[in-house]
Specification:
Blueprint lengths: L1 E8 L8 E5 L4 E6 L7 E3 L4 H16 L8 E4 L4 E6 L11 E3 L6 E8 L7 E7 L8 E8 L5 E3 L7 E2 L5 E7 L4 E7 L2 E7 L10 E6 L5 E7 L8 E4 L10 E5 L2 E9 L4 E8 L2 H4 L19 E3 L31 E4 L5 E7 L3 E7 L5 E4 L2 E4 L4 E11 L6 E5 L3 E5 L6 E6 L13 E4 L2 E11 L4 E9 L5 E9 L5 E7 L7 E10 L8 E5 L2 E4 L5 E7 L14 E22 L4 E16 L2 E2 H11 L3 E4 L2 E5 L4 E4 L5 E16 L2 E2 L13 E3 L5 E3 L3
Parallel strand pairs: 3-4, 23-39
Antiparallel strand pairs: 1-6, 1-8, 2-3, 2-7, 5-6, 9-10, 10-13, 11-12, 11-14, 14-15, 16-17, 17-19, 18-20, 20-21, 22-38, 24-36, 25-26, 25-37, 27-36, 28-29, 28-35, 29-34, 30-31, 32-33, 33-34, 37-38, 37-39, 40-41, 40-44, 41-42, 42-47, 43-47, 44-45, 45-47, 46-47, 47-48, 49-50
Amino acid sequence: MGSVILLRMIKVPERFDKVFFKNSLNIVEEFDNVRSSSGTSARANGIEFTVRNLRDAFQADYNFGGSGPYLVELVSTHSLRISINVENFFTSSDFSTQASAGANFLASFTNEPDTVELSVDSFVFSQAISNFCSKINAIVTTSEQIDDYSIDNGANYISVSTNPFTVPSIARNLSATLIIRKSSKTFNYRIAFPAILYKIYTSATYINSPSGATITINVTGNSFLLIYSYSLDGVNFQSSNTFSGILAGDYTFYVKEQFGCEVNNPITIPDFQDGGVGERVPYSDLPSKSLSIRYAKYIDFTQSSEYKNDENTLSNELPYTQNPRLYNQLFKNSDTEITTQLKTNYEIVTATIVDENLVEHIVNVTKVVNYSSLKDRRDAIIYNISGLGTQMGIYFNGVDNIYDYFSGAIIGSSDLFGSLPLWGLVGNYVFVNNAWFEILNVIFDDSVNSYVLVVNNNYTSAPSIVQVSTIYNLEPYDIHEFNIDFSLFTNQKVQVNITQTDTNTSFPDVVYLSEIIEVAESYSDTLFMEYYNDKNTDIFYATGIKNKIHIPIEFFSGGILGETTTERTDINTFLIDAEGYENDLIAFKLMPKQMMRKVIQALSHKFVFLNGVQYVKEESPEVVPVIGTNLYRVNAEMTKSNAVYTSRGLVGDISLTPLEIPNLLRTSSGGFLKIKK
């Protein structure tokens, strides 16, 4: 039995329309004016040539140019037939189209019965005698005893005397057609081979702890028909991809599939004291959207498992957009300190600016805050906690010495007065009496008038002063910053590249790219926005960072908001109270979604300066998408700070109430003089 999809094209698809032949495997073709990359098919002037282009694209992307598991045929000027010898491979529930202009496609699905009496009833892969990663056997059962078969398109036939019979040492990951013969009857069976397990598709990560690391082995890439098992010694394999309690040292992890192919890669687990709890889990946040410069994560979209979204595309690369418009971020050459902040635990962070001549300019990146792998060593008191059996408690109540973590030299002192250090949290580990112990609980013990760390260790001796050490993370990342001086790039278009790498090979490289940045001496019809908060939010503002952007505007119009209370009599009207607030309405020029969100986030900060004047947001800005594009229209109403007028005068004026003067005035010598009335 085989599975067939018959796709009929009703009309030429629109640009960016998609056909998902197999959703679960992400077998998809997107229509564009030209075939610019894998996964795209070129539109033509007519249906016939568009269908031909779709056939050629499918062959190249998913059928290895015609040598893969699929049979791809044109059955008419409007129809394409794709078949595979895997029952129910193509189904209506797994097929879909993303079409912007009606029903452009008509699809049907069939499981084709054998057309002749001679058939292949069963086809099962098995392990080859040798070369498991490149060769495979097949056990074939036919409807009746055959005379011979061919695996090379009829160039050579091999006699068969048993049923079932074995086809030995077939080259894997290549398309093949099995031809069986009996007398004058023949039957062709298209073979869909299991994927090949490649070494480069395997990786491992780990989380460290005093009791040992937990290793997780991962396999990416094509896994068609493969079942994996895992090992750390190459002998004992398991179905689970995790291993716990692994001590520090150099290891080799192994991945094996059911047909005998086995690959391996090295992994090093550092000593807990060198690595810290959980430090070796990769962490990297996309730079905040509130920052001056907007960044996107670089993704290799040639991989079928990757999809475009707001976080990994630049303004003109968004999916589901018919007419994307180019958009450059604007900066002036007077912007000499534009700061980017990054949260990451990667060891190596580099930033470069690529100019129009593709010359890379290195920017100095500084770690401004240490949050991860912090080390502490200090005095503490250990004792037996009353009422908890033999449970050890640790508390800090008195003047404690603080030591260098490695040398043990005294570097300071502190008195916590019964409170706990920052690392005194459940789940962290402490080193006491030459062993590591987990903090199980935190309690307050009235008998010692202190908060106490309850650890997983027994203690029955008298209270004792000891040195307690720990390695901990306040956050799973450190904070890095770099500044850009745009005066170096006047009248140029540049792009910022942030690359993060690590000596740990399990950390995948991470790259962030900025929007294209245009630098000039001045811009007409732009609004300069400077904004920041006085508290840390998604940005660590404690470093003094201030964000700055230049945004094109349509107009900037003024007005007055206010309230008035009056009293009316038969002969007159009296003003009771009146208030007035200067406000402005800003209409921004069209901008893409990412910049629209940046502008709204900027206006939502506590301190916002527009062309040097402080404002606050009056209400949520109005946002209107421009249908058929990646652009948005944004209108915002802002009120000036410190520009409030009342019937009593300008807020903040000096009070007219007489000051109370004391009878005694203090002299510089410390005495007093009495004021004579």
